[in-house]
Amino acid sequence: MRCPFCGHEDTQVKDSRPTDDNASIRRRRLCPGCGSRFTTFERVQLRELIIVKKSGGRVPFDRDKLLRSVLIATRKRPVEPERVDRMISGIVRRLESLGESEIPSSVVGEMVMEGLASLDPVAYVRFASVYRNFREARDFEQFIGGLSGGGDGKP
Description:
- By secondary structure, this protein is of the alpha+beta class.
- It folds into 2 domains: 12-43; 50-148.
- The protein has helices at residues 63-74, 81-97, 105-119, 121-131, 137-148, and strands spanning 12-18, 24-30, 37-43, 50-52, 58-60, 102-104.
- A 3-stranded antiparallel beta sheet has the order 1-2-3, with no helix packed on it.
């Protein structure tokens, strides 16, 4: 593991332990080059996932990018970070269990929508506004009307 401070190629593991949810390993590391300490997390990756964008482009799946988008949707909302992390871990497990190495971005988007719907209604609408590309207030009205009317919320 490369040191994030000085770039030294080899760091020493000083302590390893499972995280609270046993989904990853937390490692405390020491850089012999500069003496800095830092923490890394290891997760099991069953297969390399490729996300197929709407434009047809292909990019490697990035768990951190998914987490960032959910954190933006839940910003300033009463949602515990542990619940967000569990939701992201659940989505990753579902994606890996699909058995496909290439997954359309729409599948990921729908999984995030499902997760946010059960996590926080405001975060759900925030994410939907970007994911569904709302352009005007009417789009929000239709989406919210679909939520309260028992529909699927699709504008």
